[in-house]
Model the fold of this input.
Amino acid sequence: MTYDLLLAFVGFAFVSSITPGPNNLMLMASGANFGFRRTIPHMLGVGIGFALMIALVGAGLLGLFDMFPLSYVILKTLSVIYLLYLAWKIATAAPIDRQAEAGTPMRFMQAVAFQWVNPKAWAMALTAISIYAPDRSIPAILLVAAIFGAINLPCISSWTVLGQQLARFLRNPHQLRIFNGMMAALLVASLYPVLWSG
Done:
């Protein structure tokens, strides 16, 4: 990868990681509901899971989509259904006492698995491999995955911090329900590019 291409890739990784999407919205909601510390496994699952996804997509899954275009349509449909389910779960979540250990934020392996049904993660991974590792060589794929992982984790963590800070203004159950409802609506809105893309 040339220096200019590396700079372009770093910019792409930063912008796509810091902008709103299912992972970031769910991390912000988790930060508000459970705090930063209890959301760490979720954050690590997103960061590590996404880097792993890039590596596996580049190592062969991209070829599967090339051979069987219908598989991408099936994946897209399942992703939308699962995200709608998650939005409903967020919207109907019962407010919890942050001082208690009640409630369960997303666990590490759940967050790793979630990357495989996250439409934005798929778009990011497919774009990263297609543009920045077009030869699909293992060193190029691993470099793209490593750089993306290093940039992604701090970006997504900032959304958890934002949610944690917002929690100071969400002091009663009614406010938290409104916040969770807004996060669910934004999660559904994040499906717009997926549903109306070609």
User: Anything to note?
Assistant: The chain has a mean pLDDT of 83. The chain is about 80% helix and 0% strand. The first helix runs from residue 3 to 18. The CA atoms of residues 45 and 111 lie 5 Å apart.
